[in-house]
Amino acid sequence: MKALIIEDEDQSISALKSEIYMHCKELEIVGVAKTVKDGILKIKSLQPELIFLDIQLSDGLGFEVLNAYQEQPFKVIFTTAYSQYAIKAIKFSALDYLLKPIDSLELIQAVKKAMESSKKEVSSKIETFIQNETTARKRIALQTLEGISVFELDSILKCSAESNYTCVYFTNGKKLLFSKTLKDFEDLLCTSGFERIHHSHIINMNHLTNFVNKEGGYVVLSDKSTVPVSQRKKANLIAALGNLS
Fold first, then answer.
1. Residue 193's pLDDT is what?
2. pTM for the complete prediction?
3. Which long-range contacts (CB under 8 A, 24 or more apart) does 200-206 make?
4. What domains appear along the chain, each with residue ranges and CATH number?
C-alpha cells in the first residue's frame, strides 16, 4: 500500500518514517508533504492509498486537504499532538488517529484497520468529519452490523446501557444496539448537548421537555418517554438546565 505523509515537523516526519520502516513492511512511503497546498498536489501526482495526515499544518488545517476531493480515493490516519477538540472531532467520524509521539503498537493496529476497511466506509467517515468541521449540524459515524452508519446528532433521543452494549433510541422510533459501553457514548456525546442523568441513561438535552423533581426525579423527552434521574446526577442536570436558559 502506497503511503504519503503530510506533516510539517521534521522530527515528527523522521519518527513516523522510522516506525513505519520497522513495523509496517506492507507500506511503501512514496512521499512527504509539509503544507496543505503541497499535500493536495502530492496526492494528485503520487496517488497514495493511505495518508498520514497531521491535524495542524503550517498553512492551514488537515481537513482542508480532505475537502479538496469530492471523493477520497485514499484512506486516512490522522496524527496529532494531544488536543481534546481534535480527537473529539476524529472520534465523531470514527476515523483513526495516532497521538505523537507515535506508539508502535497503535501504529500497527491503525494500519491494519486501514488496510481492512472498505473505500465506501472510509469515504463515509471522511465526509462526516468534513461536515462536522464546516457546518453547525453535527453527525456521528457509528459501527453497525452492516458497516458504518452516519446519524444526525439531533436524531438521537437517548442512550441506555444494556450490559457492555448501548441501545440508542432515535426520534423516528427506531432503536439500535451498539457494541460500545455507555461510558464510550458519554465520552463522545456529553460535550455536545447530551447529559448522563443516570447510571444507565444519557439523554439529548435538545429533546428534554420536562424535569419532574419528585418520585426520585425523572425527565420527559419529546417522544413522551420518561427517563429516571439518579440522586448523584440530579445536580449536574439542574446545572445543565441552567446553561440552557
1. 92
2. 0.79
3. 200/160, 200/161, 201/158, 201/159, 201/160, 201/161, 201/227, 201/228, 202/158, 202/159, 202/160, 203/157, 203/158, 203/227, 204/153, 204/154, 204/156, 204/157, 204/158, 205/240, 205/241, 205/244, 206/154
4. 2-134 (3.40.50.2300), 139-244 (2.40.50.1020)
